[in-house]
Design a protein that fits this description.
131 residues; 4 helices; single chain; alpha/beta; 34% helix; 4-stranded parallel beta sheet
């Protein structure tokens, strides 16, 4: 697969989504915002999107391990699966770490839109319910 992401017709080049009509969105951001990622994932899912997100927290002491490298590559694969955008989760301070910045650059290199989503640190509401 080339690095160019023809964002106008993902079904033509992603065999895995060829029969999927829903938008595939990948969430990115610091794992300090994991609870907020889950809230956004629930909202996007309730709106009809398939949501991919990171799930493993790597301790600061393990940031230079092969396990971290493997998790970063797995998340880049999730970014490659996005239909046309990634959503970067941050808080009102606008914090975006080096790993997330690298993911944003990677997504843009594929032709994906990068959307910032500021979410308060506290979880104020439960996940939305489908009716």
């Amino acid at each position: 697969m080339s690095n160019t992401h023809p964002a106008t017709d993902c079904h033509a080049h992603h065999a895995i989504v060829s029969d999927v009509e829903a938008e595939v969105v990948t969430l990115c951001g610091s794992m300090r915002f994991f609870d907020q990622m889950l809230t956004v994932a629930a909202e996007l899912t309730a709106a009809g999107s398939i949501v991919l997100t990171p799930f493993c927290v790597v301790a600061i002491s393990d940031q230079d391990t092969m396990a971290k490298v493997a998790l970063d590559e797995l998340h880049r694969d999730k970014i490659r699966l996005a239909t046309w955008r990634i959503v970067v989760i941050t808080d009102r301070t606008g914090y975006i770490g080096d790993s997330t910045r690298a993911e944003m650059v990677f997504a843009e290199s594929l032709g994906l839109a990068v959307e910032l989503c500021q979410v308060e640190r506290e979880i104020a509401e439960p996940a939305p319910q489908l009716n």
